[in-house]
Design brief:
The protein is α/β, with parallel strands linked by helices and 274 residues long. The protein contains 11 helices and 9 strands. Bound molecules: acetyl coenzyme *A.
Length: 274
């Protein structure tokens, strides 16, 4: 597994992440001004993910240029992502990356550390300084569903099929997906979705709060562009401060949240008029 960068780091160069290395893993990464786009690019394998995918995502997050305000995560081809590469379940595993059986044989805390590193590929997508958008078409299964959940916003197509398949395979969803899922749809619905591993289609996804917008496949790119334009129309520092406030709101009392609002506003007013 390639070295995963710490998700807190920021301010690298887009060039720090080698395009050739990413292409080998099945990823494309483009930076255009304030927008970074990550494309899962193994459409013939329905953008199945491996440990190398998650390390590369962590590297991208660790080297994200300072100017980036919006990160788009999308998938090439018929499906956003069919989840973990099923070769991981075979004794042979994925060439160069081993298998679940070889990873489970790791001694002591090394195995847990490997799983923790995988999560670093997802966690940075919630940073206050950026807004992440998942553009999801077709299947988003297991790790694919969790990658969509790792983003702040989801724009979906009307043929979307979300499925948290892990419990059906004897696993738990551990790629940071359980918390956003519960926060988006509530505990009862999250239990329903995960413990049945049933498929959620676009109408239900919209109804239960899994997505912000549903469009036809042909309109997905435009819908994402429109959302980016809306997001970039607000003040950069105010947007980051507001996202920090919103992210902290659930864990605070009204009084604590009001105090946090005041503290952020004092910083804004000083920056604007001080
Ligand atoms: N891992 C590796 N290869 C995959 C995966 C995967 N997760 N999903 C699809 N592929 C490959 C298929 O083996 C096939 O390869 P081949 O052309 O060499 O035979 C190719 O992608 C196309 O797959 P199809 O099944 O033919 O595509 P279709 O569009 O009909 O179906 C679907 C797509 C529904 C996503 C299906 O491929 C599927 O169910 N995949 C497995 C999903 C899964 O169980 N993922 C694990 C979830 S748990 C987790 O992520 C932790």
């Amino acid at each position: 597994m390639a070295g995963a960068a710490a998700p807190q780091q920021r301010g690298g160069n887009a060039e720090d992440v080698s395009a050739e290395a990413l292409a080998e893993i099945g990823l494309r990464y483009e930076v255009d001004g304030e927008i970074a786009t990550i494309t899962l690019n193994r459409p013939d394998k329905r953008n199945a993910q491996t440990f190398a995918t998650w390390s590369a995502l962590a590297d991208i997050g660790g080297n994200l240029p300072e100017q980036i305000r919006v990160v788009v995560v999308k998938g090439e081809g018929p499906s956003f992502s069919a989840g973990i590469d099923l070769r991981m379940f075979t004794p042979e595993g994925v060439p160069g990356q081993g298998s679940f059986s070889s990873a489970a044989a790791l001694e002591g805390p090394a195995f847990e550390e490997r799983l923790r590193q995988a999560q670093q590929g997802f966690l940075w997508l919630r940073r206050p300084e950026i807004v992440s958008i998942a553009a999801v078409q077709g299947h988003a299964i297991g790790a694919g569903f969790q990658l969509a959940l790792a983003c702040d916003l989801r724009i979906i197509t009307n043929d979307v099929k979300f499925c948290m398949k892990e419990p059906a395979l004897g696993l738990v969803p551990d790629l940071t997906g359980t918390k956003p899922l519960v926060e988006l749809v509530g505990l009862a619905k999250a239990i329903d979705l995960c413990l049945t591993a049933r498929t959620v289609e676009a109408d239900e996804a919209m109804r239960i709060g899994l997505a912000e917008k549903v469009v036809a496949r042909s309109d997905l790119a435009k819908a994402v562009q429109d959302k980016i334009a809306e997001l970039l129309s607000t003040n950069r520092d105010a947007a980051a401060a507001t996202k920090r406030l919103l992210q902290g709101a659930r864990g605070r009392t009204l009084e604590e949240q009001s105090a946090a609002e005041g503290a952020e506003q004092a910083k804004r007013l000083r920056a604007l008029f001080g």
